[in-house]
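Morning!

This is the sequence you dropped in the shared folder:
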Amino acid sequence: HGFDVDVSDVDLYETYLEAFRMTVVDAKVASVMSAYNRFRGAPASASHFLLEETLRHQWGFDGYVVSDCGAIGDILYNHKIVDSKAEAARMALEGGCDLNCGSTYLSLKELLDKGILKEEAVDKAVKRLFLSRFKLGMFDSDDSVPFSKLPIGIVGAEAHLDLAREAAQKSIVLLKNQNQLLPLDKDQLKNIAVIGPNADNWESLVGNYHGTPIEPITFLKGLQNKLSPEVAISYAKGSHFSDDVYSLDPIASVYFETSDGRQGLEASYYDNMSWQGEPVLRRIDDQIDFWWEHDPISKELDDFFSVKWTGFLKVPESGSYELAVFAKMGMNLRIGEEEIGNGQGMVHETTYARKVLKLEKGVKYPIEVKYFSDDSNAECRLLWTRTDTDLQAEAVKLAQEADLSVVVLGLSQRLEGEGGDRKDIALPKVQTDLLKAIKAQGKPVILVLNAGSALAINWAKDEIDAILSVGYPGEQGGNALADVLLGDYNPAGRLPITYYRSLDELPNFESYDMSERTYRYYSGEPLYPFGFGLSYTEFSYSNLKTPEAARAGDPLEIAVTVTNTGDRAGDEVVQVYLTDEKASTPRPQHQLVAFERVHLKKGEQKEVKLTLNPRYFSLINRQSKRVIEAGSFMLHVGSGQPQFAPTKALIQKRIRIKGNAELPL
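The structure's back. Tokens below.
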């Protein structure tokens, strides 16, 4: 929010801007969001260089720009380069930001009235915004807008759930499979222990910033769907997320009591956001664990409403409990003399507020819970956990009794996400300790890494039998994992990032120089390399077809034959890397320039054709121009980066580029 970043033109155009250029020039996106930070002294949300010169003039962008939420206010409050909201608003509007996520643009009327801002500047932004609304059909009759005819029943339709499952299947990466433990043989299994703070936690499916699934299938539920009742499945959390971030569950109705002794809480629903007037609905709610996106409470209580729950909380055992409210918009819990609240909450994400309390068995604690929602999707939960129990001992006992353990570890939106930067890349110690304790029981262990970023799992890589990375796989993630573990789907996901061994291997966080960053420049030995992923079958490569030479600026057509040499069908991801062997500026050691995912039956052979964009042969020279220089390039075609792909799954060939060419930045 207050940081100013600068990079070389080489890194700016070859790395940072290039990904955005592809979305704008090639994919024709309709909207772009401007960032919080400054770039070369100018706020990104008011940067004429970024928003006008680069985005609109160089790339031909004709959509609208919206600020990240609060970014224009940052120009005043955090960057401190203007003295008023009005000046921040004027700077952003004239810099090319059409839409303010926030309130700073309310000052534009003041500037117009004083003649400080020209009406033409406002008109330009308004035209862009209304053009987008016209394109969306917002001013057309329903008869001419196809999306208006979609029934509500399409939400969560079977075809969409199938697609969610397929997407999750395709994204799972098999990192280790010692002695071909996977896929599991269902007929040989009697008892599986499913362990870990992410094993039965819906948040572990969706991560930070997410939609609201109707019925999320956790990893535990997915295995139960696949194996029960033929295989006994036991479950234990085993640990919390970390030493100070606890794994929470909804409070069950049995622990609530109304004022007249019934189970649950007395709920009063109001058709306003401030609990005013008479409730439009009174009822007993078993627990506070609600999503209202798909099924509004009533016609009156779809948007802009509030709820108040009252009653008593009883705990099953005396001890230390963490209680938490988790809501989009504002939620507050009052228990006895204690209060836990998330203030006004957030419009577009759920937020936590939590506190650890000592509670006694036999005591009825009076509680009041208040929640309000605007016209965004309503969501609120009252959660808790014990903080003083030995979760690991319970998990170890289950592991001793099971044939094998599936241990689901990693992160969640409570440990990573916007506004929640990680201070280390290691798996939290309490989870590593759990994993070691489970492995010590001498039974096979399958580790499922559930996180949105790389984790340093150095011990696990050496000691655990099988490891999979599932990311945040979405609402069907549990079913997809079960499909992969049991061999109903052959994994073929590839890592989109490098897994490093420790934070010490990475440059300073505030340096944006690309040196030693990503697979393109990192000179060390990664824990797992970018592009890596195993399969239950094997592939070989042959007959690479490519011209000996090509003219600078022309696309390059190549073809390679891929054969499934294993004993089952599967997908292979053909990856093409390029090394510039002679250049006037320092170049990446190699870079991915094309890839294609293909399905091959057992013994099947296919010729895969790929086209290499000439931009991948270009560089930013010392005059900050994008040019293709005559010279030699090494093509590496295979199942991964050239130094990590199996010998039979890699072909390399040198080609010459003739002549020189200049390309747009």
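Headline: The chain has a mean pLDDT of 95.

More detail when I'm at my desk.
O.
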